[in-house]
Amino acid sequence: MKTDKDEQILRKHLLDLAKTAERKGIPIFSDFLNLNEQNIFFSMKQELPHITYIAYGGYEDSERKMLCFCDDFSITSYEDVEFPITCIKIVPLNHKFSDQLNHRDFLGAVLNLGIDRSKIGDIIVKENEGYLFCSTAISYFIIDNLFKIKHTMIQASVLDYRDFDYQPKFKEIKGTVTSIRLDSILAVALKKSRSSLSGLIAGGKVYVNSKEVYSNSYQLKENDVVSVRGYGKFIFQGTSSVTKKGRYSVTILLYT
Questions:
Q1: What is d(CA 225, CA 63) in angstroms, rounded to the nearest whole number?
Q2: Domain boundary among 25, 48, 80
């Protein structure tokens, strides 16, 4: 969040949503939350009513997620909830003459329509095509008004997000560390010195399994997902052996 005031506004908003769901007995949904906002939600669990909370962003590996507040304890998974999320497939009209489009290009074009970032979830780019997850309420506005990205004319259409097939691509990175500290693993994953990364951790830019971590010495566990704002994310697969010098051999899967 930008300021303490912004955080307090978010906390009050999430608490209001939870209380409304409890009072009315119906599912209530938030906008899409980024990792920092999700972390704030996790930190306020003791303040919230005793109801069900489900987070989902349109596909299993999503980073930006909506929250569902529901006074129904039979609901245990996102599969039990009809989230108001729409997947929009965006393709160039002519692939041959298309610009090379990236995540920033797709996001910028959509935000230029005057849409608030909180209404937009993840954007997956595959072979110059974009898959945009958004609030269902604005999906047809985007389809009706988005015609061009950079200099490329495009076509946008609804794709049932349950039909969205996403297999993330990874780059395998191997290295050795003296301990399974967060800063040591980050140094291997991002190919930077531990000292240069301490500012990222202290600055609240590193998340483990969507929760903000401030300690350089935080001990990672096998299959932890680490996200670093501005740098991407990776899966820590764990250790495989110990060298003669007592260093741990580690394997990391970096999202590409």
A1: 11
A2: 80
